[in-house]
Fold each of these.
Amino acid sequence: MSDPSSAGTLAGADWLKDKDLQAVLGALNAEDGATRIVGGAVRNALFGEPVKDVDLATIFVPAEVIKRAEAGGLKTAPTGIDHGTVTVIAHGTPFEVTTLRADVETDGRRAVVAFTRDWLEDARRRDFTINALYCDGEGTIFDPLGGLPDVTARRVRFIGTADERISEDYLRILRFFRFFAWYGHGRPDPSGLKAVTRLKDGLAGLSAERVWAELKQLLAAPDPARALLWMRTTDIIQRVLPESWGIDAIHRLMAAERTEGWPADPLLRLETILPPDAGKVRGLAKRLKLSKAEAKRLNAWAKAPDADPALVEEALAARLYRQGVEAVRDRLVHAFAREAEGGHRAEAAALRKQIAMTDEWQKPVFPLKGNDLLEAGMKAGPAVGKRLKALEEAWVEGGFAGDREALLDQLSEND
């Protein structure tokens, strides 16, 4: 078994002191075991980013992982046992533990793997050097492929030959840009950029769900604009988002996020690079298999009227009622970013006020139902729905004034 060289340390990190994590490591490493933290937790810690999920790599096959974990009083779940992954649960906290693996066969979408006890082989099958970093329970870092210098340089670099890594899984093209958005600095790695450009035709064979998952994570990055620029330059964004009409507007949205303290919103950012065309948005939602909530939000945004700084509160309330809070707010935010970028302070201030009103607005409940009209003497039929809609429109235009009795009085007056 080869053992990677060690360099650096994360000793003293708060997340390493977690009792549940140490319980899992203690159980698996009893009697000269070899289990280490791998991937995102180590990478994020080195970059100074929050550590969320902690994944582990081990020399032990799944059956031995289960045996050792249960001997240590921990629960297990065979969540991906065919691929070497067992979830070990310590006091309700799950940790994915995966046996070291080597690729046997790849087809550009998935790989056939074999278990190994060689840490170098396991590292070589990963995508980028910054993701092939390991550390033990004391925080000692194991860097078999030279990832630490890339962390220091904030460089996203493929392991080995970029073409080979991409040909194993074409999703790595999008991952290259996603990790650049989150961790990269300056220009993307030249060899990686050339490789993703050469092999971009392979994107066509990826599932829609995988593509959207990567795009959404990219759009959630602190600054996705640089990555999107290079995706446009390499003609990759046109492959995965043919509906896009440009990326210029995302810069002003991000500027507004910074000044207003708004959190990153992947769908809001996506809207900046899409035309507000309901037909194209429906096509995108279907093609990328967006969730119902995501598709509903984008469709509502596309159909909603553009924001108007001169809109009075009553008119804004009516628009919120008819179009929905989310769609109107999205339009307001984009308009605010546009006016702020243009230096139009009065318009931006008016839109900021409208956004604040939108955030506090509660949708009134129309007090009438179809049965109320029937009880008032109307005959069942299409006329009931039409009359109910007309009364609701008048109620909205009137500033939502009038309770059930007042509206019924209005109904009798009009008969």
Note: The mean pLDDT is 92.
Amino acid sequence: MKKIINVSNAPKPIAPYSQATLSNGTLYVSGQIGINPADGKLVEGGIKAQTKQIMENIGMILKEAGLDYSDVVKCTIFMTDMFFYTDINEVYGTFFKENPPAREAVAVKSLPANVQVEISCIATE
């Protein structure tokens, strides 16, 4: 059985998908972008600000499912340029201080809404 997770304090999906799906104790969080859920706009301040907003959005989704960052077992990071890798890691690492999850980080040609970074994750109960 699956449960759809959609929260108001994370950005609304911009296409036909849910923010996350909980199935058999595993939470699959859709790719999040640096949208401020309060105003629906991309945060200003560059890649670090976008990454911080993404991680905060993921945190809200995790919380709704009764989980937190320590429950994340895998993340995927998409960025439009590997030049951003160091800055993304600097912010991302503050959310996973101990036992960080498995991860891949790849550069892609473009992302939805012309953002520079998108992050998805999987967490378990």
Note: The first strand starts at residue 2 and ends at 5.
Amino acid sequence: MIHIVCCFQAEDAIRYFCLSRGLGDGYKRQLLYGGMFLIAGVVLLTIIYLLAARALDRGLALPFEFNEMQTDVMIVSDVCAPLPESVTKEEFRSWFQDCTGTQRAIALDQLLRSSLLALLGMAVAAFAFGYVMAGRVLSPLGRITRTARRVAGSDLHRRIELDGPDDELKELADTFDEMLDRLDRAFTAQQRFVANASHELRTPLAINRTLLEVQLSDPDASPELIQLGNTLLATNERSEQLVEGLLLLARSENELVDRKPVDLAEVAGQAVEQTRGEAQARGVEIRGGRPPVHVQGNGVLLERIALNLVQNAVRYNLPTDGWVRVDTEVRPGQAVLVVENTGPVVPAYEIDNMFEPFRRLRTQRTGSDKGVGLGLSIVRSVARAHGGYVVAEPREAGGLVMRVAIPV
């Protein structure tokens, strides 16, 4: 029981030591293995010491009795005091007990010193052995972890290809490689589909738009034909926006590999300028301060984030005296784009639904001329592709506060 309690206490102490100094999992395990060996040696030394002391106590009892006759005694020990020429039985017994007590203490001291030296050597050997064994055991796991991190950066062509015996770690690595093969094929098929869809969907819509514009430019066209053409042209434009949104959503699902420095304030300013005419037409004032904030990412996709948020803030606003505030902030390790607007009161339980494709406030499908219902879905996908996130908070007076955080 003492051994088990000491081991658990040692494990907790070593874990606290490692965590308090920010050591890696591998080094924590190495110290843990060495510490367990050391604690086992301390417990073993304590047991040996107690057993040796008990054996000495039992073995040093007087094995003889004195008679009343004189007896000559030759003292051969260097640690015992000399005897006078003539002693009584009680005097000799007292001297003998003192002598054996001194010898017992010296023997225990020598045993303790020798054991401590042996324990020191055992501790060095234990930590060295633990370091070697932990390194051999954790080396495959470290290789798996490094490969997983490279894969997390969208490098799906990496494989572990672990060599060695057919043990649990090799089985894990082979299973991980098989999963990467399937993911690689799936992402390749998705990219091929997006490329084909971009051509197959855009081409007929572009042809329709061209035909409608040519027909509407005819000066002999009747008013009914012009009205019908404008209706079809608006429907075709809406279909183009839907296709563009779907393709952008498909491309932005993966984390970006090629990143460049982008000023988030410049991106937000361009989005504001593109939306300013619509805001003025709707009577919405655009405010805010945007200090320079640089991040690593894709400028086109980040501009799409800002444009979608500002457009939504302008379109879903108050009929009169509405405003939109677009700010950029710097936080520890993050660049934040904040878009706040007035508007209708938004229940908190509706926030999550707004980020789903084709979902709007209190409606399950698209049903207005304000967009195709993909704006916030694209914002969330692009933010995740940059390693960031987007959160929405309803304002008490109505409207929303949208925050997009991108790692710097």
Note: The mean pLDDT is 76.
